[in-house]
Amino acid sequence: MQEKGSISIHTENIFPVIKKFLYSDNEIFLRELVSNAVDASQKIKRLSSLGQFNGEVGELVVDVKFDEAAKTITISDNGIGMTAEEIKKYINQIAFSGATEFMEKFKEANDANEIIGRFGLGFYSAFMVADRVEIDSLSYQDGAEPAHWTCDGSTSYEISEGTRTTRGTDVILHVNADSEEFLNKFKLQQILDKYAKFLPVPIRFGTKTTSEPDGEDEEGKPKYKSIEVDNFINNTNPAWTKSPSELTDEDYLAFYRELYPQSMDEPLFWIHLNVDYPFNLTGILYFPKIKNELEIQRNKIKLYSRQVFITDEVKDIVPEFLMLLHGVIDSPDIPLNVSRSFLQADGNVKKINNYITKKVADKLQEIFKSDRKGFEEKWKDIGLFIKYGMLSDEKFAEKANEFCLLENTNKESYTLKEYYEKVKDIQVDKDGNIVYLYSSDVAQQDGFITTAIAKGYDVLVLDGPLDTHITSYLEQKGGEKIQLKRVDSDVIDKLIQKDEKIELILTEEESKKATDLFQKAINRTDMNVQIEALKADELPVSVTLDEFMRRMKDMAKTGGGMGFYGNIPDNYKVSVNGNHPLVKRMLESGEEEGQKLAKQAFDLALLSRGLLTGADLTSFVKRSVEMI
Ligand code: ADP
């Protein structure tokens, strides 16, 4: 039996085009061929269990071998095999109807993956790295003859009698001159580790050296000897394919280490995903400890389709904020050959997205409810993640509102609702606004915090990288009339303005004089002096930065699109307490002495918020020494 034929594509020069186009991710040839071998192995198992194959299934294994001298890579399986007819049917007829249509779609396709996926070109990806490909196969069917097929990447092939004596298929690649890098143990091992690590049929790649106990030496210490053992690439039964009831915490942690051998930290907790309607999806998502580096932790979720690794760029499958999670998602409903544009258009992907978001929110809620203390302890690791989620995903925010925590300067935690209840009667201003005071830097704003607490107010700590956005979020979504004000953005009685009216004891003329005096003493254009009617026992001078301006500038800094504000210099308000006896004294002293006192009081205010530095600090110290 020998037959020559032509592969049914109608354009002669299509292979060179495909080859060239596919060249960039050419390592996926191995994924495609190994998955075909795994499929063939699983098919024989299925046929046997259905009673359609009565022979011995035996131990199923896929072997990957290479021969550097002969420049070949061989993928062998003992799966169902193919008859010559089947080779002709499955291999020769590339799954598209005509060259015109192919070329049309080819233009739309974005990458090699997509072409392979759209056209069922899995097997043909072999030609990305090979000049010539051979298939040697023996079908499981009774009386089947071995078949041999060879093709040099043009559209003609040759089929003849094969030599295989046992059931299964060998695919032999004659590696081309440009792809000799693949004739390398480390390279192949690395590709197999990436794509085949959790395939359901054992994949063997040569042997490896390990050691084995070998009696004892003269001193009675155990001896070891090196032995060569089969080098199996994969864990055929990874944790996500099991039922959660079979798994202990230790199993989940062990699987995490298997996924990320490099990782030093243990995950905080995990979610086992398992859906079969309206789409199929399994997986395990881990919550890592998240520090402040939102960026570098991305791309840790690995996407699988029936245990074949596809990608770790899950951008369109997993909601943006969940990309901080680690773990595995496996769905046969996501085609093996995914591409960006495909994913964006796919309805299933949207559903998967929503499902994962919901599961994550439910899990967090469950932990919050069942172990609030534990949840609070984890807050510093998961808080950033939850806030990120609330800001970027409304559905998530709806749920997260119930377990998002606010922490005050006493390190007490409250839910949003609890906090509202706590302060709503005390921190209400004359217009009915509920004012949440917060600090972005507890050490630097200590003076302001102490003053606020002395008044019976509470101060939140909002010092995280997303907290500028969270302040706006709380105002918009946190309930009616909530205002957030940083504790140093004005004097306390202005921050929460009550109805009581305090009279200014200075006359209008004295007020003007005091303003002049301070303006001259300070002599800075970025400081606006204001005489205010505060209680006599409040500080004589404080320096504050307007909440609105500061927020706009913060936003500009974190890239919130307020670029214009970023360029405006800071403009501070110098609140002079007109009712403080010191002010009267300044006015009554001579010009020089008055200015000296004003400068001293101003410097103290700067000092209390860490703004007094350099030469100003030196002259302040000198002046203080003189004064005492
Ligand atoms: P796909 O796997 O997407 O169908 P391929 O081009 O990779 O496309 O393979 C085409 C067909 O060839 C497969 O569906 C299968 O029937 C057959 N085939 C490929 N490799 C093997 C193999 N190792 N053993 C048995 N059949 C195979």
From TrEMBL:
The keyword Nucleotide-binding applies. Pfam families: HATPase_c_3, HSP90. InterPro entries: HATPase_C_sf, HATPase_dom, HSP90_C, Hsp90_fam, Hsp90_N, Ribosomal_Su5_D2-typ_SF. Residues 25-179 form the Histidine kinase/HSP90-like ATPase domain. Keywords: ATP-binding, Chaperone, Nucleotide-binding. It comes from the Bacteria. Belongs to the heat shock protein 90 family. This is Molecular chaperone HtpG. The gene is htpG.
